[in-house]
Amino acid sequence: MGKIRIDYERYRVPDKGAFSLSSISPDDDQGIDKASARKRVKKNLDDLQGFQERLYAENKQSLLMVLQAMDTGGKDSTIRKVANDLNPQGCRVTGFKVPSAEELSHDFLWRVHDHAPPAGHIGIFNRSHYEDVLVVRVHNIAPQTLIEKRYRHINDFERLLHDHGTRVIKIMLHISKEFQLTRLRRRLERPDKHWKFNPSDLKERKLWPRYMEAYEAMLNRCSTEYAPWFVIPAEQRWFRDLVVSDLLVDTLQRMDPQYPEPAFDVREFPPESLK
Ligand code: ATP
Ligand code: MG
Q1: Cβ distance 195 to 118 under 8 Å?
Q2: CA–CA gap between residue 42 and residue 97 (Å, rounded)
Q3: Which of 17, 18, 96, 143 has the largest CB neighbor count within 10 A?
Q4: Which residues contact 79 (CB under 8 A, 6 or more apart)?
Q5: Is 131 a pocket residue for ligand 1 (Cβ < 6 Å)?
Q6: In the chain, what percentage of residues exceed pLDDT 70?
Q7: Is-above-0.70 flag for pTM?
Q8: 96 lines ligand 1 (CB under 6 A)
Q9: pLDDT given for residue 3 in this prediction
């Protein structure tokens, strides 16, 4: 098997200049064949395990992956895939739902900060603080002037995490409105998928163009060099897994976590001397 290199940089939202969602095709697969992609994903998951152990042992840096998508975009299955082989002790997945009354009585980042991954950990956000500039913008839950300020609050917050030693990568799983229709139909066709169907998803679906506009606005405002956004084609699930796992492996490789030096003189403890 030749080594497949995925060019995920083409999905990075630049920190300067205008970005348009139409520049990325949701069913792109870079012409890669599925069987070799699967093999590579398997290898990536093995590598991730190794990196996670070193990250945990080093206990200095952490990694946060933020996932956003329209309904049926595949957030849950992406998490299942990439986190499946991780050690649960060093990994925490947090889902963000409609805020509670208490959460709403605080600033919008209050409920988020508590879930930022501590040193040595990998954190995954299934939805995130970005809901406060997406659904909130689409439904006018907060005034536009406040949402404008939130882009900056988010950038400052993520810089704080970055300066603290947390690598932040943000992924939008990109699907088309037509693709969503096929997934919603499937949820109704299959009894074992009924639990995933929520009639209110149809209401959100009607607002598709407004959502895309809100996504584009935040991608343009909040993709930074220290916490970049990637818009990843997500209609071919196997391709999505490949891009996401490649991105995670490369990020951890660059973080280069190291086992700590032992706090004792190893020469003083030859293994055979133990009784
Ligand atoms: P998902 O749709 O993420 O797979 P789910 O269907 O199990 O999860 P939902 O009850 O749909 O759970 O929870 C997510 C809902 O909460 C979404 O509609 C999302 O827009 C909404 N939400 C999340 N954060 C906020 C927020 N800050 N303000 C308003 N709504 C929010
Ligand atoms: Mg939902």
Answers
A1: no
A2: 31
A3: 96
A4: 67, 93, 124, 126
A5: yes
A6: 99
A7: yes
A8: yes
A9: 65
| DSSP H helix total and E strand total for the chain | 10, 5
E strands, the chain, in order = 62-69, 91-95, 122-126, 166-174, 229-233
Distance 252 CA to ligand 2 centre (A): 30
Token pair for 83 = 């986190």
In the predicted model, what is the mean pLDDT of residues 224-247? Answer: 98
**Does residue 109 have its Cβ closer than 6 Å to ligand 1?**
no
Q: Is residue 260 within 8 Å of residue 58, measured between CB atoms?
A: yes
Residue of the CA atom closest to atom 15 of ligand 1: 97
Question: What tens digit of pLDDT does each residue of 183-197 get?
Answer: 999 999 999 999 999
Q: Report CA(204)–ligand 2 centroid distance (Å).
A: 10
Q: Is the pLDDT of residue 2 over 70?
A: no
Between the CA of 76 and the centroid of ligand 1 the distance, in Å, is 13
Sheet holding 166-174, edge to edge: 91-95, 122-126, 62-69, 166-174, 229-233
Tokens 């163009």 correspond to 209
In the predicted model, what is the mean pLDDT of residues 98-124? 98
Determine the distance separating the centroid of ligand 2 and the alpha carbon of 197, expressed in angstroms: 8
Question: Between 174 and 275, where is the model more confident?
Answer: 174
Q: Is the CB of 207 under 6 A from ligand 1?
A: no
Is the CB of residue 71 below 6 angstroms from any atom belonging to ligand 1? yes
Q: In this structure, are strands 122-126 and 91-95 parallel, antiparallel, or unpaired?
A: parallel
The predicted model gives 136-148 an average pLDDT of 97
For the chain, list the domains and their CATH numbers.
9-254 (3.40.50.300)
